[in-house]
Amino acid sequence: MRVNLTVNGRPMTADDVWEGESLLYVLRERLGLPGAKNACEQGECGSCTVYLDGTPVCACLVAAGQAEGRDVVTVEGLATSGGGPDAGLSDVQRAFVDAGAVQCGFCTPGLVVQAHALLADAEGVPRDADIREALAGNLCRCTGYEKILDAVRLAAARRAGADSGFRT
Amino acid sequence: MDFLRPRTWAEALALKAGRPEATPLQGGTDVMVEINLDKGRPAALLDLTPIPELREWSREGVEIRVGAGVTYSRLIAELGTELPGLAQASRTVGSPQIRNRGTVAGNLGAASPAGDSHPPLLACGAVVEAESVRGTRLIPIGEFYTGVKRNALAPDELIRAVRVPAATGPQYFSKIGTRNAMVIAVCSFAVALHPSGRRVGTGIGSAAPTPRHAPRAEDFASGELDWDGRRPLDPGVARRFGELVAASAAPIDDVRGRAAYRTHALAVMARRALGWAWDDFRGNS
Ligand SMILES: Cc1cc2nc3c(=O)[nH]c(=O)nc-3n(C[C@H](O)[C@H](O)[C@H](O)COP(=O)(O)OP(=O)(O)OC[C@H]3O[C@@H](n4cnc5c(N)ncnc54)[C@H](O)[C@@H]3O)c2cc1C
Ligand code: FES
Ligand code: FES
């Protein structure tokens, strides 16, 4: 079947899509967007997190046909939309780099999208409990999470214009 | 495999009548896992997400009618006051990404004994609104679960909504798991106080082939509680309530826990949950 959808602001079409295929497969294998990662295909790891009509979801659990006519934003779409002085990186991505929150990087795209969603809704720097809750569906096998929490706090503090006292 | 995309509810019912073997697809958090892991390949997927009215909830008399497409995230954000037990249970489901897609209707469709929405639905006396081209059937929640991962839906029926009486008293949900997120219940328990009828409702999860009530515990507590004077809960009554809840379960040993542990944990959860609910009731007098 054919699926038409908007990805990162651009209308796209995928052909010969199998009816049981996931949105994740369409993004990675048919539309050339390998940012969202495929690790578990069962909703457990969050490495495939993308925005679907503005809501973060596991792309591996969305049937391709369910994305027909809908609006998808992947981690690739955040890089340009964030702007700022840092050569196209969004502020959340910049904070992940600065805080040392990236090791192998496999979990990073999903965490960046989920952290982006958290900060879009948060006022000021979110409480640790809220950060942990927001990121509870994203697994990282490398960092031990502390630097990831640092990255989220750093991004939030910079948005609030109060990053001077922050140490990583 | 066919991918069926009805635009309207009437079209969905007609498609299901013509293709009773088609698998309804809502949030996909159960269905897509099965397909991805090749645990079964449906003959057809019937995508219900395009149908706008399924995403709505409404107040109808004393009931809240929750459309089949209302996600856990929306239930938590929008119905925490009217349906506190179901909202608490929803908060414990999976992760934010899962709650952004998963629905109570999907939980009912899957009918896993461990599904988190079932105990509060039982404790509140919910009714499942099933519909087919033949008409609408209101199935009391206690008759909905017919076996392990089996429910009372006919092959041509779809869940249109679940009708849950709005809370008239405190409600609590309690769940045992190995971490605070992304966990299938080892066992779970819900309690709801219905002060106008002087009744206590209960629901047990993950400790029997199906989710179920604890009828003897309900009768016992309903009779013992001091609904008029609102005296503090007698510790002996609370303990006995816990024992009767545990006695209503029929747990097994499995990878998540042993039967003996489940029985013990249920008694503890039930005793505590009744205490929290009763304290709230007394405080709000
Ligand atoms: C990582 C992960 C964590 C999870 N954690 C939990 C948890 O903590 N607690 C919990 O209870 N569950 C959990 N689940 C299971 C799942 O999220 C829930 O069962 C959820 O409620 C399913 O809803 P859905 O809309 O995604 O259903 P779907 O996957 O779309 O459907 C599930 C079943 O219901 C049927 N169905 C769907 N809609 C209808 C309808 N309108 N009429 C008739 N049948 C219908 C489908 O055919 C299918 O059989 C988890 C799943 C994942 C992947
Ligand atoms: S690949 Fe989707 S959650 Fe792991
Ligand atoms: S950095 Fe390797 S999994 Fe997170």
Automatic annotation (TrEMBL), chain A:
Alphabetical keyword list: 2Fe-2S, Iron, Iron-sulfur, Metal-binding, Oxidoreductase
Instruction: Give the matching PROSITE patterns.
Output: 2FE2S_FER_1, 2FE2S_FER_2
Entry-linked InterPro entries: 2Fe-2S-bd, 2Fe-2S-bd_dom_sf, 2Fe-2S_ferredoxin-like_sf, 2Fe-2S_ferredoxin-type, 2Fe2S_fd_BS, Beta-grasp_dom_sf, Diverse_Oxidoreductases
Return any one Pfam family short name.
Fer2_2
Please name the Gene3D superfamilies in this protein's record: 3.10.20.30, [2Fe-2S]-binding domain
Task: Tell me if Oxidoreductase is a UniProt keyword of this record.
Answer: yes
Q: Which residues form the 2Fe-2S ferredoxin-type domain?
A: 1-78
Q: What is this protein called?
A: Carbon-monoxide dehydrogenase small subunit
Gene this protein is translated from: coxS
TrEMBL record, chain B:
Q: Does the keyword Flavoprotein apply?
A: yes
Going by the entry's taxonomy, the superkingdom of the source organism is recorded as Bacteria
Residues covered by the FAD-binding PCMH-type domain: 1-169
PROSITE patterns the UniProt entry points to: FAD_PCMH
Under Pfam families, the record lists: CO_deh_flav_C, FAD_binding_5
Q: Which InterPro entries match?
A: CO_DH_flav_C, CO_DH_flav_C_dom_sf, Diverse_Substr_Oxidored, FAD-bd_PCMH, FAD-bd_PCMH-like_sf, FAD-bd_PCMH_sub1, FAD-bd_PCMH_sub2, Mopterin_DH_FAD-bd
Q: Which UniProt keywords apply?
A: FAD, Flavoprotein, Oxidoreductase
Note whether Oxidoreductase occurs among the keywords: yes
Entry's transmembrane regions: none
- Protein name in UniProt: Carbon-monoxide dehydrogenase medium subunit
Origin species, per record, is Microbispora siamensis
